[in-house]
Amino acid sequence: DEHGAVLRDLAGRELLITAGGTREDLDPVRFLANHSSGRQGWALAHAALVRGARVRVAAASVDLETPPGARRLDVRSAAELAETVAEHRGQVDALVMAAAVADFTAADRSPEKIKKDDGDEDSVPSIDLRRTEDILRHSVLDRGGASHPAIVGFAAETGGNGGSALDLARAKARRKGADLLVFNDVTAGVFGSSDNAVRILDREGQEVAEAAGSKTAVAHAVLDELAGHLPDVPW
Ligand code: CTP
Ligand code: CA
C-alpha cells in the first residue's frame, strides 16, 4: 500500500486491535451473535502492519486469514475478549476496539439444550440476560489520566428518537472518553461489505476527520488520527 509504504510512521509501535463479533452461548447449541464480519478490524491490522507496527488482533469469531505478521488471539464471548484485552492493554501503545461486543449475555447458560414443551403448544422460554463489561469504558478508566495506551472506539449508529445518528455518536464519544470514536451511520448497512464511510470524533464529540471508500482507506484515516494520540514513549 502506497500510503503506509511511504510513511512507516508506526514503526516500533505495538497495537492491539479487536475485531469481529462476540458470541454469547445460551445452551450447548445456541448463541447470541451479531453481524460483524471482522473486515474493518482486519483492514486496520493490515494497514498498521504496512505502516510498520507490531499488531495483536483479538479475533472474536473472525472467519478470515490472519494478517501476515500479526499475532492472533482468538476469543468467543465478551467475557473472553475482556480478559484478553485486560491482559494485553498494558503492553501496547494503542487499543483499537473495532469488535462488536455483546451488551448482554445469558445470566445462566443452560448446560442442557433448552427444550420446547411439547405438552404445551404455547410455552415459550424466557432467557434472562445480564450486562457484559464495557471493555472500552473499563480500559479508559483503567489507564486513569495516563495517555498510555491510546484508545479508539467504534460506534455504528442509526438515528431514532434519541436524535440523529451523529448526535448519538457525539454523546457516545463524550460518555466513553476514548481518544477517538469512529462513527458510521449503519442505516445504509455496511456489515460484510468491503466499503465503509466514517466520521472520526474526538473525546469532546468534535469531528476531526472523515473518510469514505474501502475499509483499507478508512483504516489508514483512523491510523492517521491515532498517530497523533500515541504516547510519547513507545511501549
Ligand atoms: N464496547 C465494549 N464493550 C462492550 C460494548 C461495546 O468495549 N460491552 C465497545 C465497542 O467495541 C465499540 C464501542 O464500545 O468500540 C461502542 O460500542 P457501541 O455498541 O456502539 O456502544 P454501547 O456503549 O454498547 O452503546 P449502545 O450499544 O447502547 O449504542
Ligand atoms: Ca453496544
Automatic annotation (TrEMBL):
This is Coenzyme A biosynthesis bifunctional protein CoaBC. In the C-terminal section; belongs to the PPC synthetase family. Its EC number is 4.1.1.36, 6.3.2.5. Keywords: Decarboxylase, Flavoprotein, FMN, Ligase, Lyase, Magnesium, Metal-binding, Multifunctional enzyme. Pathway: Cofactor biosynthesis; coenzyme A biosynthesis; CoA from (R)-pantothenate: step 2/5; Cofactor biosynthesis; coenzyme A biosynthesis; CoA from (R)-pantothenate: step 3/5. It catalyses: (R)-4'-phosphopantothenate + L-cysteine + CTP = N-[(R)-4-phosphopantothenoyl]-L-cysteine + CMP + diphosphate + H(+); N-[(R)-4-phosphopantothenoyl]-L-cysteine + H(+) = (R)-4'-phosphopantetheine + CO2. GO terms for molecular function: phosphopantothenate--cysteine ligase activity; phosphopantothenoylcysteine decarboxylase activity. Catalyzes two sequential steps in the biosynthesis of coenzyme A. In the first step cysteine is conjugated to 4'-phosphopantothenate to form 4-phosphopantothenoylcysteine. In the second step the latter compound is decarboxylated to form 4'-phosphopantotheine. Catalyzes two steps in the biosynthesis of coenzyme A. In the first step cysteine is conjugated to 4'-phosphopantothenate to form 4-phosphopantothenoylcysteine, in the latter compound is decarboxylated to form 4'-phosphopantotheine. Residues 10-227 form the DNA/pantothenate metabolism flavoprotein C-terminal domain. Residues 15-235 are annotated as: Phosphopantothenate--cysteine ligase. The keyword Metal-binding applies. Binds 1 FMN per subunit. CTP binds at D103, K113, F154, K172, K176. The chain holds residues 188 to 422 of 424 of the full protein. The keyword Ligase applies. Its cofactor is FMN; Mg(2+).
